[in-house]
Amino acid sequence: MHGGGINAYFKYRIDAACSLFRHKKIRYIIVSGDNREKNYNEPKMMKKELIKKGIPSNFIYEDFYGISTLHSIVRVHQIFKQKKFTIISQKFHNERAIFIGNCLGLDVIGFNAKNITFDSKIQIREIFARIKALWNIVLYSIQTN
């Protein structure tokens, strides 16, 4: 998406959210992501795609400050008042997100959207993302206690 087009990870996550909504497995959708750059707004792009696929806009909530997985999960709990929710992403990301949610005492499950065949860049990035997540949980715990 950063390069201008919709990437496959994004597409598969949107498709999964639409399917869950249509099958009444979820009632609302919170789209959370980065929008720090003037021409890059993840929540706005996600909402636009969901609406194009038939999801009514009044069932979609935007979180413009989800600059990391930790921020998104904390905000779903603190801003949107949810203790129990489903994260829709690929398996590698859901594993990290569920770990973070569990560390925060939340009842979080993941729905694994279709994945892309082996992507070494993503696997390497995920190693560092998991280390960062662990570090952020420690820092967050210190700050909130």
Description:
The protein has a single domain, classed as Rossmann fold (3-Layer(aba) Sandwich), CATH 3.40.50.620. Helix content is 51%, strand content 14%. The chain contains 5 helices and 4 strands. The protein has helices at residues 8-22, 42-52, 69-78, 91-103, 120-144, and strands at residues 29-32, 60-63, 84-89, 107-112. The strands form 2 sheets. It has a two-stranded parallel sheet with strand order 1-2. The protein has a two-stranded parallel ribbon with strand order 3-4. Strand 3, helix 4 and strand 4 form a beta-alpha-beta unit. The relative contact order is 0.14. The mean pLDDT is 91.
Using brief descriptors, characterize the structure shown:
145 residues; alpha/beta; Rossmann fold; two-stranded parallel sheet
Assign the CATH architecture: 3-Layer(aba) Sandwich
Order of helical and strand elements: HEHEHEHEH
Shape: globular
Unreliable stretches:
none
Q: What is the rounded distance between the termini?
A: 37 Å
Strand count, sense and barrel status of the largest sheet are:
2 strands, parallel
Mean pLDDT: 91
Provide the number of structural domains: 1
Strand neighbour order, sheet with most strands: 1-2
Number of strands: 4
Tell me the Rg in angstroms.
15 Å
CATH structural fold name:
Rossmann fold
Summing up helix and strand content along with how strands pair, one would put the structural category as alpha/beta
| CATH superfamily annotation | HUPs
What percentage of the residues does DSSP assign to strands (E)?
Answer: 5-15%
Tally of alpha and pi helices: 5
Q: Report helical residue fraction.
A: 40-55%
CATH class: Alpha Beta
